[in-house]
Amino acid sequence: MAVRGLDSPVAMVLAIGGLYVGQSVISGVTFGALPSVMRDQGLSLDMIGLTYLAVLPWVLKFLWAPAVERYRLPRAGESRSRSIVLVGGLVCAAGLLLGGLVGAGNLAAIVAVILVVALAASTVDIACDGQAVESLSVKHHGWGNAAQVGGAYLGSAIGAGLFLVLVAHLGWTHAMTLMAALLVLLGLPFVLSPAPPAPAHRPHRPSLRSALARPELRRGLALSALYAATQKWGMTMLGPFLVDAGLDLASLGIVNGAGGMAVGFACALLGGACVRRWGSRPVMILALAAQALALAALAASDWTKGTPQEFLVALALVSSSGIMALGFVALYAQFMALSDPRQAGIDFTLLQSMDALVSMMGGLGAGWISQHYGYGACFGLSAALAFMAIPITARLSSRPKPLSSHEEQGAMSELAPIKS
C-alpha cells in the first residue's frame, strides 16, 4: 500500500536520497571495506584487486538501460519504478546476506556475489534516476542532485567506515546482516511512495539511438568526460600523497570517513541551494576554478616540501570532498536538464557511464605520471586542465536545445499528468 503524504517534492527527494545512500553503502563495503578485510585475512594484493570487477556493471549499465526503461515505462499504465527498486533492493540485500555466510576469505564466491549485487544496484540506479527526472520539476533538480551526491558521501562513510567497526566488534557475518537490513530500510520510503499519475498513452519507445541522435545529449557526454577528468584525475593520488607526506593510516581513515562525510554532505546541500538560485553552469565553473586552485596548491606543496600536515589535511578535505560535492551536484543537475523525460533512465545512465569510464581511465594515468614524474606533476597537470576546461565547460553547459515541435507535443502529452 502506498504511504500517503510522500508525493511532495521534499518527500520524493528524501525517498531517492535513501536509495542513493543505499547504493553508496554497497560501494563503500565493496571498494572501501572489503579489500581491508580480505588483506586482514591474508589474501594477496593481486587477488584483492579482483574485487574491482564490481565497477564494470556501473560502467556498462547503459547497455541494458533501454530494456529497463521500456519495462519501467509501459505503453500505458503507471510507472514500474517501484517494482524495479523493490526487486533490485531485495537482490542486493540477499546478496549481502549470502556474502556474510560465505565469508570474505572465499574469493571466488565473494567476487561472484558482489558482481550480482553490483548488477542489481546499477539497475536500481537506472530506475531511480529516471523517476527523479520525471517527478522533480526543474526548480527542484538541485535538491535532487544534493540528495544524490550527499547520499553518496553518507553511504560511503557507512559502508567503508561503520562497516569495518561492526566487523571488528561483531564479526563479518553479523556486520553483513546489518548492512542488508539497512538497505531494506533505506529503500522503503521509495517503494511505499505513491506512483505519479500515469499518462493515457506513451507513444515514445525509449532507445539508445534516440538518445544519441540528440545533439544536446552528445554535448552532455563531452561535458561529462571533461568534468570527470578535471575533478577526479588529480584526486586519485591524494591518498598516497598524504601517506608519503607522513600521515598515518588511522588519521587518513578519519579524514576520509568522518571528515569527508561532514564536508561532502554540507557542500552537497550548499550546492543544491546554489543550483536552485543561480543554475548549474555558474556553480560548475566556480567548482572548476576552486579545484584548479586547490590542485595548484597541492602541486606547490609537493615541489616545495615542508608544508604542515594540518594544511595538507584541510586542503585534501576541501578539494576531495567539498569542491567535488559542490561541482557534481551542479553537473548532475545539468544531466537532469539534458535528459529527455520520456526516457530519462537511458539518457542519465549514458551520462553517468561516461563519467565512470573516464574516472577509471584517469586513475591509471594519474598513477603512471605520479610514479615517473612525482605528485607535483600530477597535481600541476590536473590544475592546468581544470583552468583550461572553464571556457569549454561554459560552452558545453549552455541551456539544452529545446525538443522539436513534434517531440515537444509527444513529451507534453505523456508528462502532463505527472508534472501537474
TrEMBL record:
Protein's recorded name: MFS transporter
**Region span, Disordered:** 400-420
Keywords attached to this entry: Membrane, Transmembrane, Transmembrane helix, Transport
* Highest taxon in the source lineage: Bacteria
In terms of InterPro entries, this protein maps to: AmpG_permease/AT-1, MFS, MFS_trans_sf
Q: In what way does this protein cross or attach to the membrane?
A: Multi-pass membrane protein
- State whether keyword Magnesium applies: no
Subcellular location as annotated: Membrane
What family is it from? Answer: Belongs to the major facilitator superfamily.
Q: Where are the transmembrane segments?
A: 12-35, 47-64, 108-128, 149-172, 178-200, 249-271, 283-300, 312-333, 373-394
Q: Name one Pfam family in it.
A: MFS_1
Checking PANTHER family in the record gives: MAJOR FACILITATOR SUPERFAMILY DOMAIN-CONTAINING PROTEIN 3, SOLUTE CARRIER FAMILY 33 ACETYL-COA TRANSPORTER -RELATED
Q: Which SUPFAM superfamilies match?
A: MFS general substrate transporter
* Keyword presence, Transport: yes
